[in-house]
Amino acid sequence: MHSLSLVHGDLCAENVLVCDPEMKVVKLSGFCHARKEGEITSKNTENIPYMPPEIVQKLPTEGFSAHRSQDSWSFGILLFCMLNGSFPWTEAEKESNKDYQRFYQWHKHHTIHLSCSWTRFSNKLLKLLRKLIHPKQSKRTSISNVKKYIKFTWTRTEDDIDLTEDFRSSGCTGEDGASGSSGSTTNLTAKLETLGVCTNGARQWRKVRTELWVSASSDTNYL
After folding, report:
1. What GO terms are given for molecular function (predicted)?
2. How is 50-107 classified by DSSP, letter by letter?
3. How many domains does the chain have?
4. What is the C-alpha separation between 146 and 99, in angstroms, rounded?
5. How many Cα atoms are found within 13 Å in the side-chain-facing hemisphere of 55?
6. How far apart, in whole angstroms, are the C-alpha atoms of residue 212 and residue 206?
7. Where in the sequence numbering do the catalytic residues fall?
8. pTM for the full predicted model
9. Nearest to 133 by CA among 143, 123, 124
10. Which of 188, 16, 171 is CA-nearest to residue 85?
11. Each residue's pLDDT tens digit, 117-165
12. The domain that contains 114 carries what CATH number?
């Protein structure tokens, strides 16, 4: 899509179709919000957790230009959800959302404190997410650059996760961390399982399935 100067505008788990058990055929759906890049569009209020901050700040009736960097942000959130089973925050608003505020400060190097749900990610994946989920729209990397990170390890094992005082002091007390409510986590987990994504299995197997899905998505050249 991006090679054709088209923006999907609604990348989320519900719009990713895994068409075979081996996860080699992956297709996108939900094109009702797709626009030509630069075309004026309106805010989609149904998937707030996937929205970048520049759109979150818009009023429902306020128009903005469609840009592929908005898909990059949504794809980064989708990767987080696939590997973690929950959203990193309910909305990317640093003034009112503590989880996003903590991420924003980490991204700006003002603090190293992150919710413990981020500690399971490898340094390579954190580097990729930092580029995809960049608060500044102009500095986000393209989705095609995800291919460069496929060969690296994306998650840490239980023994690799070091729950230092930094993470304990930031509220890291459990497996799933403090991001999102238990209700939203349960709903997202149910949706992922209906799409064939393992959320209760071994963490390493979840990583392998996600990498296969990302690789298949890249090979389709939809974005």
Report:
1. ATP binding; protein serine/threonine kinase activity
2. G--HHHHTS-TT--EE--HHHHHHHHHHHHHHHHHSS-S-SS--TTT-HHHHHHHHHH
3. 1
4. 24
5. 27
6. 10
7. 10
8. 0.73
9. 143
10. 188
11. 898 899 999 999 999 999 999 999 999 999 999 999 998 865 555 544 3
12. 1.10.510.10
